[in-house]
């Protein structure tokens, strides 16, 4: 019956009312006893002891910042630290990585200084060069430093110590022999020099440059040829997977790998080292990638994951 009824409620004998009240009290007492037993877990334990709160995931508080330009440590399927071999955070603890951002944004102001010849073991070459640029004027040196800084953030998040050859803090250079010496001095477990190519329109894709066997003058790459190839293969593999870029269609025969004996940064290295040409700045399609910040973040991820694979395999 609805609350709006006008019929008076029926009268009940007073004795019946007393019995009803007494029964209600007994029922309430019994229910209270059962509730108390339930809260105590039936065994006298303190309330809540039988149902501990779920603990937080060990990695939830250490997720990397996925914003562009920050340490995007997000991982996709593949090998190494991004394949589920435990928590990748800290997997590079105790490892040192040398990153060499190619060229220098101020080299063009020091043409005489960078033209000085230095000994690279099997020949003499310029201290450094200005590098290339896109047709719109985006300099290779700006690209390399940006990607290097992004890769540094990712690798540091993995626990690595990261050493730079230059961080936009030099008037020019350093020279190619100094770049090699920086990795040697740091006793780097892996070293990489980041570049972008300046080839003809239609030449597209990336390639990783490996050291040839050079034993001349101050150069002796005998001990690093094999591990450098392993490093290069892993970097190339992860670069393809993360960026979606194809291996070079003009160098390396589709492998994305090239071997050279004329680069001082490789010839004079005593630690595993490779160069990566991330794309061709003179091709408009490649240039569209190289000038895109989101793509550069992926490039840094691909490079970092390749290094991680090498160091943890």
UniProtKB/TrEMBL annotation:
Low complexity: compositionally biased ranges: 47-61, 74-84
Protein name: N-acetylmuramoyl-L-alanine amidase
Superkingdom to which the source organism belongs: Bacteria
Region feature Disordered, mapped onto this chain: 43-110
Basic and acidic residues composition-biased segments: 62-73
Domain MurNAc-LAA: 180-308
Classification via PANTHER family: N-ACETYLMURAMOYL-L-ALANINE AMIDASE, N-ACETYLMURAMOYL-L-ALANINE AMIDASE AMIC
Organism expressing this protein natively: Streptomyces natalensis ATCC 27448
Keyword terms of this UniProt record: Hydrolase, Membrane, Transmembrane, Transmembrane helix
Matching Gene3D superfamilies: Zn-dependent exopeptidases (3.40.630.40)
GO process annotations (BP): peptidoglycan catabolic process
GO MF annotation, one: N-acetylmuramoyl-L-alanine amidase activity
Gene Ontology CC: one annotated term: outer membrane-bounded periplasmic space
Any coiled-coil regions, as ranges: none
Membrane spanning stretches: 15-36
């Amino acid at each position: 019956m609805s609350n709006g009824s006008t019929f008076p409620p029926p009268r009940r004998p007073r004795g019946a009312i007393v019995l009803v009240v007494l029964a209600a009290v007994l029922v309430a007492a019994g229910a209270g006893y059962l509730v108390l037993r339930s809260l105590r877990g039936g065994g006298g334990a303190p309330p809540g002891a039988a149902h501990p709160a779920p603990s937080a995931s060990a990695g939830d508080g250490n997720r990397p910042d996925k914003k562009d330009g920050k340490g995007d440590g997000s991982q996709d399927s593949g090998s190494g630290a991004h394949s589920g071999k435990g928590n990748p955070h800290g997997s590079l603890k105790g490892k040192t990585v040398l990153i060499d951002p190619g060229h220098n944004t101020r080299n063009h102001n020091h043409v005489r200084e960078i033209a000085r010849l230095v000994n690279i073991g099997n020949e003499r070459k310029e201290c450094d060069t200005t590098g290339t640029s896109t047709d719109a004027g985006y300099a290779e040196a700006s690209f390399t430093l940006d990607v290097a800084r992004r890769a540094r953030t990712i690798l540091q998040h993995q626990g690595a110590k990261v050493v730079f050859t230059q961080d936009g803090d030099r008037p020019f250079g350093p020279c190619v022999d100094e770049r090699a010496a920086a990795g040697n001095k740091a006793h780097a477990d892996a070293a990489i020099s980041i570049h972008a190519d300046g080839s003809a329109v239609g030449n597209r894709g990336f390639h990783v440059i490996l050291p040839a066997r050079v034993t001349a003058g101050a150069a002796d790459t005998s001990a690093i040829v094999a591990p450098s190839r392993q490093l290069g293969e892993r970097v190339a593999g992860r670069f393809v997977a993360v960026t979606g870029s194809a291996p070079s269609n003009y160098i390396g025969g589709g492998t994305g790998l090239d071997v050279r004996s004329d680069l001082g940064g490789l010839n004079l290295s005593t630690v595993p080292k490779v160069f990566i040409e991330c794309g061709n700045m003179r091709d408009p399609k490649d240039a569209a990638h190289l000038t895109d910040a989101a793509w550069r973040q992926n490039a840094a991820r691909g490079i970092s994951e390749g290094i991680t694979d090498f160091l943890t395999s």
